[in-house]
User: Fold this.
Amino acid sequence: QVQLVESGGGSVQPGGSLRLSCAASRSIFSLNAMGWYRQAPGKQRELVAAITRGDSTNYADSVKGRFTISRDDAKNTVYLQMNSLKPEDAAVYYCNAQYGGINYWGQGTQVTVSS
Assistant:
C-alpha cells in the first residue's frame, strides 16, 4: 500500500509559478511510475505529467514547455514545477502512484489561477 500526500497548491496570477510536492509513504524507487493528474469542475480527470522508475517523462500537450516533473528518491517525493500558469491550469491536482497493479491517489491540492 502507498499513501500519498500533496502540498504546494495555492492561488497565483496568470504567468506565475507554483511547485507541487507529493510525498510517498514508501520508497518511490519501488513504484512503477508516479504522476500528476488534474480535474477542473465539470471536467474529467486528466494526466498532466508522469515519470517512470527509469526517469522517462510524459507530459500533456497543454503543459509541455511550462511544467516539469521530477523526483527525489532520497526524500520519496515527486515534484511538479509549474511555470507560466494560465487560467485554464486551475484545477485540483492529484498525485498518482502505480504499484503492484494498483493506482494510488493523494487527496488533491487546489491550484487557482486568476487575476
In short: The two ends are 40 Å apart (CA to CA). The chain has a mean pLDDT of 95. The first strand starts at residue 4 and ends at 7.
